[in-house]
Design a protein that fits this description.
Elements: E1 23-26, E2 32-35, H1 41-48, E3 55-57, H2 63-66, H3 72-79, E4 83-87, H4 89-98, H5 100-103, E5 117-121, E6 126-128, E7 131-140, E8 143-150, E9 153-156, H6 164-169, E10 175-179, H7 192-202, E11 206-210, H8 218-222, E12 229-231
Parallel strand pairs: 2-3, 3-4, 4-5, 9-10, 10-11, 11-12
Antiparallel strand pairs: 1-2, 6-7, 7-8, 8-9
């Protein structure tokens, strides 16, 4: 017996069919960045037509954000090149343990047989193709998650709270995407109420909530959010003016 059926599983709204979090960011010059590799990465990429990735950025090492790493080999085959992946020291260590065949064994003489990835350490602000990226560290249980700020857009997931130093890095945004698991409190994820408090403090022009549980119904609960704040959904596309 699986247990109780969630609210979302009984919904006919396609926005209530949620896979785990990965985010595709296309910058103004066409640079394509991927944040995290969810277990459903292959299906997500096919659904939105993602065929090119210039680099992958990792928020943290938990499996719901990294288990799709092997699907990067398809992008290697399409691009015929090694793809850089950006991660902090903790994620690097986890990758050497979980994906030793990628990072510790000799590369194959062709692209596509296994991922061809080059680890690059995040230990402060960095740039990809000339685009400045600011890590935004937030606590998540016993680990630290990296959010990322790209000019006037920022993405933060899996935060248990957003400390003052992180909030200061999130001011002056056109768009903030922030996790909000459910209405009830959770020990290692922001609740909807807690996420809305952060948004009210840092005051982005627009905000989307992500990483929701199946307790959230998109249409019903979105209508309760304040102006300028919405729940994200799979396949959502947002354009941010330069």
């Amino acid at each position: 017996m699986i247990g109780r059926i969630s609210r979302a599983s009984e919904s006919d709204d396609p926005r209530d069919r949620r896979t785990r979090c990965s985010v595709w960011i296309r910058l103004a010059d066409g640079t394509d960045l991927l944040v995290d590799t969810s277990p459903e990465l292959r299906l997500q990429a096919l659904a939105v037509g993602l065929t090119h990735v210039d680099a992958v950025l990792f928020t943290h090492a938990h499996a719901d954000h990294t288990a799709g790493l092997d699907d990067m080999r398809a992008f290697n085959a399409l691009q015929q090149q090694v793809i850089p992946v950006y991660a902090d020291a903790g994620v690097e260590a986890a990758f050497h343990q979980r994906f030793s065949y990628i990072f510790d064994e000799p590369p194959l003489p062709f692209f596509g047989g296994k991922p061809a990835l080059a680890l690059r350490r995040i230990d402060g602000p960095f740039a990809i193709n000339g685009h400045a990226i600011m890590p935004v560290p937030v606590p998540h249980g016993r680990t630290t998650v990296l959010g990322f700020r790209f000019a006037r857009f920022a993405y933060v997931t899996d935060a248990a709270r957003v400390p003052p130093a992180a909030r200061d890095l999130l001011r002056g945004l056109d768009l903030l995407v922030l996790n909000a698991l459910r209405e009830r409190p959770h020990p290692v994820h922001l609740s909807i109420t807690e996420a809305l408090e952060v948004i009210a403090d840092v005051q982005p022009n627009h905000a989307y909530l992500t990483h929701m549980s199946d307790d959230v119904l998109h249409a019903e609960d979105d209508a309760k959010l304040p102006p300028g704040v919405h729940f994200a959904y799979d396949g959502l596309r947002i354009e941010i003016p330069e």
